[in-house]
Every structure is written in C-alpha cells, then in structure tokens.
Amino acid sequence: MPYLTTTIRSPARCTGPAPLLYYPPTTLNVRDAREVRMITVIFRAKAQPGKEEETLERVRKMGEAVEAQEPGALAYLIHRSAEDPSEIVFFEVYKDDAAFQAHAQTPHMGELREKFAELFDGSTVKVDRLERVGGFVRA
C-alpha cells in the first residue's frame, strides 16, 4: 500500500491566544502520486477550569460550521474524555492538504482561535498529524 511519511515539529506548550500549533509545520514525502492524500489530525486540550460548558458549546458550533461550509472535511468529530471531562479531543479527516489548509483560514476557525486562550489551557495542547497505514471507513 502506498503511504505518506510525515515529519512534525511542534512546541510542547501553547501559550499564545491562538494555537498556531494547531497546524504544525509538516513535510510530506509521497511515495505514490496516485495515493489519496487524506490528512488526519487529532487535537487534544483541556478546557480552562470553569469554562468547560462554554468550551463545549463553542466547539459544537465549530463542528456545525465545518459540516455546513467545508466539503473537504470528511470527518470532524469532537469528543470529551471519559476519564477527564475537561479534555476535549477533535478527530479530523480532510480530503487532502488543500482542504486541511482551507480549514485553517475559515472565519469560524478564526473565531475559535481568538477565544482559544480564554477557553483552553494552552499547556495541555497536543496535536498529532497522522499517516494512514491501513484500515477502512464504512459509508
């Protein structure tokens, strides 16, 4: 199976108002140009103490905007950790890198970026950009 290799460089902590960390710099080496270059991202961060419900409300609205306005977002799932309800986890799949980059430029992403430090504890941010090595998706 053709595959993508990805190198990710990202700081351990996010202290600014907006997680530019959310879209870490990457280098892709594509072994087969015919491979569908889907991009998968897992984003984790804890809500600021006392901001858990507001954070959930805002990320749900974000999910609705992504669904309505971003056809290149194939999956955009927002979870809360069963072990730590303050931890929010996004599982995102984009059609290709262009869709992934377009997501970063949307008004709804800009709005969330502006409120990020108010809603999330930047020291808890963890972003993984993944390479597909197998599996399937049921339609």
Description:
It is a single chain. This protein has 3 helices and 6 strands. The chain has 139 residues and is α+β, with helices and mostly antiparallel strands. It has one domain: Alpha-Beta Plaits (2-Layer Sandwich), CATH 3.30.70.100. The strands form 2 sheets. A 4-stranded antiparallel sheet has the order 4-5-3-6. Strands 1-2 form a two-stranded antiparallel sheet. The two termini are 21 Å apart.
What keyword list fits this structure?
globular, 139 residues, alpha+beta, Alpha-Beta Plaits, 3 helices, single chain, two-stranded antiparallel ribbon, disordered N terminus, four-stranded antiparallel beta sheet
Briefly characterize the structure.
This protein has 139 residues and is an alpha+beta fold. The chain contains three helices and six strands; from the N terminus they run βββαββααβ.
Major sheet strand order: 4-5-3-6
Total count of strands: 6
Number of helices: 3
Q: Quick one: CATH class?
A: Alpha Beta
- From the N-terminal CA to the C-terminal CA, the straight-line distance is 21 Å
Rg on CA atoms, Å: 15 Å
Number of domains: 1
So what's the overall shape?
Answer: globular
**CATH architecture group name:** 2-Layer Sandwich
CATH topology: Alpha-Beta Plaits
Stretches where pLDDT falls below 50 for ≥5 residues? 1-34
What is the succession of H and E elements? EEEHEEHHE
Binned strand content: 25-35%
The structural class is alpha+beta
Helix content: 25-40%
Task: Characterize the main sheet.
Answer: 4 strands, antiparallel
pLDDT averaged over residues:
80
